[in-house]
Design goal:
about 290 residues, alpha+beta, Thrombin, subunit H, 2 domains
Length: about 290
């Protein structure tokens, strides 16, 4: 009993004992000191778990936002591409309208709908044909210059042979018509990005960058249309002609819309009269038969 009383008394004294400075019960201080490591461990574990799940939720939110932003960027890129295409089509249509207003010939606007598989780089198919008034050998142009000529026609489509075709030829002149004698057929080459003039006199002065225009002498293209510009001159001499490389003014790879000129050259004059001392051929043949 005595031991029990002493133990109870000690417990009461310990419970009532206080720190003289802070007036906190010593039992509470001891208990807090003993519980502190456990509390720190539990708190750290709780914070780690809470942080893990918070980070997981934030990561999931970031992934969803990233996917949404990617989708939005894709939509904006598509819209931008569509606007650029519309702007290009608008510029092309405006150029065709300006060409129609400035041209002294009737014109037919057309779109390229395909390429001839047998001559992929040399011929294209347009969506206008004889029903629109298009005929063989009519010139095809853009606002920048000559594209080619009509080589086949159906009621609703036509085939265009490009000036880059190595079997085609355009009567060309370096510089302005009437101011120079540097004339020669302009023909296609194996290099589809360049044309060639082979018969310009070696005595002519030719400068790089000079425009090359149609002469109209081929009876297909009217005079004054731009074919391209001089890209390189392989100089000739008094007896050897220049070889001139010409960069086409209309790159064939970027063609989408073109304009067909309803152009027909003036018919060749027929000469009814001959020299006074020369008899017409039919008359000579008639006399011989007699």
């Amino acid at each position: 009993m005595l031991a029990g009383l002493l133990l109870g008394n000690f417990a009461l004294m310990a419970w009532n004992a206080k720190d003289p400075e802070t007036q906190n019960r010593l039992v509470r201080v001891w208990l807090q000191a003993i519980a502190a490591p456990v509390q720190n461990t539990v708190t750290a574990a709780g914070n780690t778990g809470t942080g893990f799940f918070s980070n997981l939720a934030a990561w999931r939110t970031a992934v969803l936002e990233n996917d949404s932003l990617k989708q939005r960027v894709g939509e904006l890129e598509t819209e931008l591409a569509q606007k650029q295409n519309l702007a290009e089509e608008n510029d092309s249509l405006r150029s065709q309208l300006d060409l129609k207003n400035q041209s002294q010939y009737k014109t037919v606007a057309a779109q390229i709908i395909g390429r001839d598989p047998s001559a992929w780089f040399d011929a294209v198919v347009i969506n206008r044909g004889s029903n629109a008034g298009i005929e063989l050998n009519m010139p095809v142009v853009t606002a920048n210059g000559v594209v080619g000529r009509i080589v086949a026609v159906s009621p609703f489509t036509a085939q265009v042979s490009l000036v880059t075709d190595d079997k085609s030829a355009v009567g060309g002149i370096v510089g302005e018509l009437g101011n120079t004698g540097a004339t020669s057929p302009v023909i296609g080459t194996s290099n589809k990005e360049l044309l060639e003039m082979r018969y310009v006199s070696g005595q002519e002065t030719i400068e790089v960058g000079t425009p090359v225009l149609t002469t109209g002498q081929d009876k297909i293209y009217p005079p004054g249309l731009k074919i391209g510009e001089v890209a390189e001159v392989r100089a000739g001499s008094a007896t050897i002609p220049h070889t001139i490389l010409v960069k086409p003014s209309v790159p064939s790879g970027s063609l989408k819309e073109v304009t067909v000129l309803l152009y027909k050259p003036q018919p060749q004059p027929t000469f009814d009269k001959m020299l006074p001392n020369v008899k017409p051929q039919n008359e000579r043949i008639g006399r011989r038969s007699r």
